[in-house]
Design brief:
With 241 residues, this protein is mostly helical. 73% of the residues lie in helices and 0% in strands. The termini are close together.
Length: 241
């Protein structure tokens, strides 16, 4: 019962923040639906779906903006392990600029591919069943992130890989990599390195890290535990969905 009540309060706070930030009348309508009257289970689930759509949209927006990956230490795509082993030698050989350009280009490719996730997230939310929503409401602290990862990771990987490949061509990832490793053929830096797979995997890892962070913020932000507000809006008698 407590988790359910907390999630309802969280939903109210999240939507209220969105109203304040965007002034969007649609969000105001959602907020009125959640905070007024006696809510049915259907109302609560519909509100949860809206909150999840907002959260996933934020995660996509943050990762897809310029430097969304590159300047976020949590999700910045690092040099592949094989390259890391020779990074010091590369820099000593005067190739520091090429190393930096290569790393930046991988992050730029991820930022360009990230918007593709939004459509799939929205589709997943629309297809969410009552049982799915109940599990998220009453589940673990990262239940929403686990749900999205389980439902979307494989499809996202399939969609991301060609986008990453195109983006890497546009920003010159392969070109930077070839320039950087041209003089190091004897050090096994790597013809075997699959850059498409590497960047795609890291891009998706970063996206779900941001989604998990958004979920944690929603669940744990003290502003979401305004006890007086919860009592006033929802009372203390609701049972878990």
């Amino acid at each position: 019962m407590l988790k359910k009540t907390v999630w309802i309060g969280i939903l109210t706070v999240v939507l209220a923040a969105c109203v304040g930030h965007t002034g969007n009348s649609a969000y105001q309508d959602i907020l009125r639906t959640v905070t007024t009257g006696s809510l049915t289970q259907t109302d609560i689930i519909a509100g949860l779906k809206q909150a999840l759509e907002i959260g996933t949209s934020n995660a996509v927006q943050w990762t897809s903006q310029t430097d969304g990956y590159n300047k976020n230490s949590l999700i910045r795509i690092p040099l592949p392990e094989k390259v890391q082993k020779t990074e010091k030698l590369l820099r000593m050989a005067g190739m520091g600029a090429q190393v930096d350009a290569f790393e930046l280009s991988m992050n730029r490719a991820a930022e360009r591919a990230a918007p593709e996730a939004k459509t799939l997230f929205v589709q997943t939310i629309k297809q969410m069943t009552f049982a799915d929503a109940r599990q998220i409401l009453n589940g673990r602290e990262n239940e929403a992130t686990l749900y999205f990862k389980d439902k979307t990771y494989q499809s996202l990987s399939q969609r991301f890989k060609p986008l990453v490949h195109t983006a890497m061509s546009e920003v010159g990832v392969t070109n930077y990599y070839q320039r950087m490793t041209a003089g190091l053929s004897g050090l096994a830096v790597g013809d075997s390195l699959d850059l498409d797979r590497y960047v795609t995997g890291k891009a998706l890892d970063g996206l779900f890290i941001m989604l998990a962070q958004e979920e944690a913020k929603i669940r744990n932000d003290p502003a979401a535990r305004v006890t007086d507000l919860l009592k006033h809006v929802f009372g203390g008698s609701r049972q878990p969905v």
